[in-house]
Amino acid sequence: MKHTKKNAIARQPGISTGHPAQLVIGLTVWCVWFVVVYGSQAVACKLAAPDPIVGAFNPINLMLGLITLLIALGLAWGAKTCWRSTGSSASATALNTRQAWFIARIAAGLYAVSAIATFIVLWPLLVLPPCV
User: Fold this and answer.
1) pLDDT tens across 16-27, in order?
2) How does DSSP classify residue 4?
3) Which one, out of 37, 87, 103, 120, has a CA that is 20 to 30 A from the CA of 79?
4) Kindly report the CA angle at 84 between 82 and 86, in degrees rounded to 5?
5) Short-list 33, 122, 104, 108, CA closest to 77
């Protein structure tokens, strides 16, 4: 049995960009990230506080900064994926209703807002010592 390109697009794993769950995934990821970053910073400061003289470039901030950067890039990728799905030729099969198109567009905006909020919170990790 041959698989055409149309079938390959329709059989991609995961949640489609027009699924209503896309509306909450970005902000949920941001919320969980926010709690984990500041919670783990508090625990790390309690267990192994770095010397304040070292400043912002210490193991705690570097690890939290790396995690933050990865999450922000993932959210940006989600925004790009949702936005592109509404304008590609595959959107005729993947997003066959106006509702799915609308959900994908709004989800792209919510992913973008989540990515921007993550980048904004990354700034203090880069300039402030964590345990002061």
Assistant:
1) 888 888 899 999
2) -
3) 37
4) 80
5) 108
pTM of the complete model: 0.78
CA distance 114 to 30: 6
Structure-token match 């993947």, residue found: 94
**What letter represents residue 98's amino acid?**
R
Q: Which whole-number Å values give the CA distances from 105 to 9, 25, 50, 73, in the listed order?
A: 19, 14, 44, 19
Nearest to 69 by CA among 126, 131, 26: 126
Closest CA to 73 of 114, 104, 43: 114
- 22-48 and 98-127 are packed helices; what angle lies between their axes, rounded to 10 degrees? 20
Place of tokens 């690890």: 63
